[in-house]
Amino acid sequence: MFERFTKEARAAVIAGQQVARDAGSRTVDTRHVLVALAESTGPASRALDAVGVDRHDLTARLRDDLRAGGLDGDALAALGIDLDAVRERADAVFGPGALETAGRSPAHIPFGSDAKKALRLALREAIRLGRRTIDGGHLLLGMLRAASPARDALADTGVDLDALRRALESDRAPGSQSA
Amino acid sequence: MAQQPLVDTAAGDDPGRGLRAVRSLRELVDRLEALQVARARDLGWSWQEIADALGVTRQAVHKKYGRRT
Q1: Does B66 touch chain A (CB under 8 A)?
Q2: I want to staple A126 with a disulfide (CB 3.0 to 4.6 A). Which of A39, A131, A156, B32 is the partner?
Q3: pLDDT, tens digit, for every residue of B19-66?
């Protein structure tokens, strides 16, 4: 399937792995790829701009969420655990930022099932739109097709997902110029 | 006092909140374990000593952390 990816889409997949590495994630999910797409130029970014998404704000927030990993301070507080106190202790014993970098991701971070599914759906979207190659816009369409963490994150920012879909589809309508 | 929140979440009646709390707890345990194991190795502990302290087999702890050091 990867041989069908445009250079830009391939770059986004690779950059998604780097986003995962930066965040200390153990798998790559659709949010990592969304950050990569939103931080690059291409059909996905154009569509996000077209529906009024503040890409800088979106990626900053997603990166923060990803860095926190599964560590939800509020959930732990409800158990009577003060995450800030634990972090302070960990910093003192293991060095600054220890808790954030603990159990750091391996050299190769595998794609999670959610991201794999989105890649498959991206292929379907490309075929549906009569394209031979899969670009970043198709990747984003694939993430929007089924429930995914990336779709949830976009919905949380108040993005009109239908409008985003239309923007992605119109950018690649036959005969349209893609810069 | 400290018992009350536990009743509200991990043992509470909203599975969503309870499960998120459990997930965070597991993540926290995983990270603390990784930090403690790495430090013990730095201080010269053997895999067997670490395994004994964690209550698991030497193979289990070596498989999980052996390649990182």
Answers
A1: no
A2: A131
A3: 878 888 988 998 899 999 999 999 999 999 999 999 999 999 998 888
Please indicate if any CB of chain A lies within 8 Å of the CB of B7: no
Q: Answer whether A103 sits within 8 Å of B26, measured CB to CB.
A: no
Rounded CA separation B67/B60 (Å): 12
The angle, 0 to 180 degrees and rounded to 10, between the axes of the packed helices A30-38 and A113-128 is 60
Residues of B in contact with A90 (CB under 8 A): 32, 35
Residue B31 lies in domain: 3-68
What token pair was written down for B66?
């052996």
- And the tokens for A40? 């690059």
Question: How open is the CA angle B60-B63-B64, to the nearest 5 degrees?
Answer: 85
Give how many domains chain B has, as a whole number. 1
Distance (Å) from the alpha carbon of A93 to chain B's nearest alpha carbon: 9
- Angle at which helices A161-171 and A136-145 cross, to 10°: 150
Task: Note the pLDDT tens digit of each residue in A153-176.
Answer: 999 889 999 999 999 998 755 444
In this complex, which of B3, B24, B32 lies closest to A75 when CB atoms are compared?
B24
User: Domains of chain A (ranges plus CATH)?
Assistant: 2-70+109-171 (1.10.1780.10)
Q: What is the ipTM of this complex?
A: 0.75
